[in-house]
Amino acid sequence: MMQRPPPEDFSLKETRPHLGGGKLTGDKLTSTYDLVEQMQYLYVRVVKAKELPGKDLTGSCDPYVEVKLGNYKGTTRHFEKKSNPEWNQVFAFSKDRIQASFLEATVKDKDVVKDDLIGRVVFDLNEVPKRVPPDSPLAPQWYRLEGTKGEKVRGELMLAVWFGTQADEAFPEAWHSDAATVSGTDALANIRSKVYLSPKLWYLRVNVIEAQDLIPSDKGRYPEVYVKAIVGNQALRTRVSQSRTINPMWNEDLMFVAAEPFEEPLILSVEDRVAPNKDEVLGRCAIPLQHLDKRFDHRPVNSRWFNLEKHIMVDGEKKEIKFASRIHMRICLEGGYHVLDESTHYSSDLRPTAKQLWKPNIGVLELGILNATGLMPMKNKDGRGTTDAYCVAKYGQKWIRTRTIIDSFTPRWNEQYTWEVFDPCTVITVGVFDNCHLHGGGEKNGGGGKDSRIGKVRIRLSTLETDRVYTHSYPLLVLHPNGVKKMGEIHLAVRFTCSSLLNMMYMYSVPLLPKMHYIHPLTVSQLDNLRHQATQIVSMRLTRAEPPLRKEVVEYMLDVGSHMWSMRRSKANFFRIMGVLSGLIAVGKWFEQICNWKNPITTVLIHLLFIILVVYPELILPTVFLYLFLIGVWYYRWRPRHPPHMDTRLSHADSAHPDELDEEFDTFPTSRPSDIVRMRYDRLRSIAGRIQTVVGDLATQGERLQSLLSWRDPRATALFVLFCLIAAVVLYVTPFQVVALLVGIYVLRHPRFRYRLPSVPLNFFRRLPARTDCML
To answer: Per-residue pLDDT tens for 219-243?
Structure first.
């Protein structure tokens, strides 16, 4: 009998890495990179050369420098016919991989057949100085070139050579020996670490009020006029005006997302629907966004009249005619809203657009991206699996991208980044990707494909203790059509430092979003549409950066498509609701046991507590809050000590049926065969049928409550009205404490005095009429 393979380890692991080189002074680490492990590098800055001799027939030279250390070799760009070239390039060699004891910097002359040697400088690594930031950079020096036999030759080379760590400011732009297989300027740019900023996004509100003196081509019919507005790729239109005249009115808001710098104007066209599929343009106008009013609160901006222009064809040429048609609008850029470009559940920034409305920061978030282990091969190169991994982290408007570690399943980045924190109830997202843009060419050899996702981690700041360094290894989980897969683990160090505890506590009392979201709320459909447009703009702008942060990376980080239907996610959300209600269900079962005297001692104690609370009602609320306080203190012993991470069981990812996953990964609209679509449609109908029944039952109970006083069933309403009169008289005559005591003792009565049949009030309620008999 075959044994089942052991389940994969999807858990979070606490680690104890050697952070910052371990140099402790008090509670702080002396290194500026105190959340990562120190990595030692040999840095070589090649600045320039002078008085280089000519080597070819023309007496000129095309110089470049080759920096060689053992088997590793880096070269500068070459200059044509220049004897005094300037390169100013930095080379970094990992100290862990150094096997040589000498560094050689050779100046060569680029030639068609074989490059000629001009001269070289040799360094003994034992004599190379060590630099520790914040020391100033090492000043480069002139070195006389030597020949192969040690003789002095003509020409000098300016160099600086030192040992340093990844905290050195030369590190981000240096050529790395780890990336020696990558060639070409574009490919080298693609592997460097970079910091990106999301474009500043504004909501653009276009309030279309009315138009005047429109001139339709057919004056014998009532015009059906609407306004179409376009900003970049976004197009919206108003409804057709109810006043079918040449002076139509709308008073309708159209909302867009615009990004600084404002490149595209707002283009408005007033159109008349002359036939079902035919619209006639009655006038146009283009409004630059740079000159629009910016609104920071709920006070309305001034409205303006804009002239409409129309083009007509005369002898095959467009001619512009200006006429008296005008459109009345109120247009402004909304600075009081936060433009939502992320899923609201994982927002990393909640500030309004306008900087004038920003509150001071409450702390600092520091993230150390240490390494990854056990990564899966993401592509094939030279007949073997390989992975070129890099990380992207997003918090607020700041995105960071680490350098790409070439061909490694255990990459070590050891890069540290910092963000200002303005709200503790925010989330930082860290994603790991495989770089597919290094070796040029087509998709097969890794040049033209999309960067593959390896996995991501979300950390909510409010779950972190302040000033504590969290070092954990997070599982990188990705859902594939054939199930959930662990792609490896990423090792992170996180520290949230609070500058003012009082300010942070105050943040818990203020609204989550800026006040304009509550004073002038946007509809759900508007927010969905605007979020889609915002993510498209952010994705497009970051793709145009150099090096680009690619569309597939940005969309994965921003959870684009998370709103699509998924059977797995629906089940997970249903069981989440059941998990929330399980506490109430448990209390209900406990109370039922009390009523059934399962444990007589507990039931007697509950009777005594109940009588005390009835006699002294002023103790009810203090007792409830004291009880909650004691529960909170009791649970403090078992408080979570680790940040939350992706939970496959909660997500129902480990138990999802393959067909459900195939449906989740299907395109929209579907690309599956008709028989599969029919089967899924029938399954959805059966689920919807059950939901429909539950919703109908809820409606029935609500309608029965309404029918108590509606005289729909005259006898039932008469009985209820008579009962209300008697209850009013009895409660007026009898003290409330006596009534409460009698009701409580009746509810808690011994099972000997109970019947198995439903109670009289329940029987009465179930007999009340509902509107189900009016349903078709």
So the answer is: 778 888 999 999 999 999 999 988 8
Q: Rounded to an integer, what distance in angstroms lies between the CA atom of residue 328 and that of residue 206?
A: 11
72 near 93, Cβ under 8 Å? yes
- What the block records as the tokens of 71 is 């088997």
Residue 54, classed as helix, strand or coil, is coil
Contact 390, 405 (CB under 8 A): yes
Cα separation, 536 vs 544, whole angstroms: 12
Q: What is the dihedral of CA 140, 144, 147, 152, to 10 degrees?
A: -160
Q: Report pLDDT for 655.
A: 83
Reduced 3-state DSSP string for 495-550: EEEECCHHHHHHHCCCCCCCCHHHHCCCCHHHHHHHHHHHHHHHHHHHHCCCCCCC
Helix, strand, coil % over all residues of the chain, rounded to 5: 30, 30, 40
Cis peptide before 6 (omega within 30 of 0): no
Contact between 769 and 706 under an 8 Å Cβ cutoff? The reply is: no
Distance CA 538, CA 521 (A): 23
Distance CA 768, CA 251 (A): 47
pLDDT digits (tens, 9 = 90+) for 501-559: 888 899 999 999 999 999 999 999 999 999 999 999 999 999 998 888 999 999 999 98
Beta carbons of 759 and 746 less than 8 angstroms apart: no
Q: What burial class does residue 157 get, using C-beta atoms within 10 Å of its C-beta: 0-12 exposed, 13-18 middle, 19+ buried?
A: buried
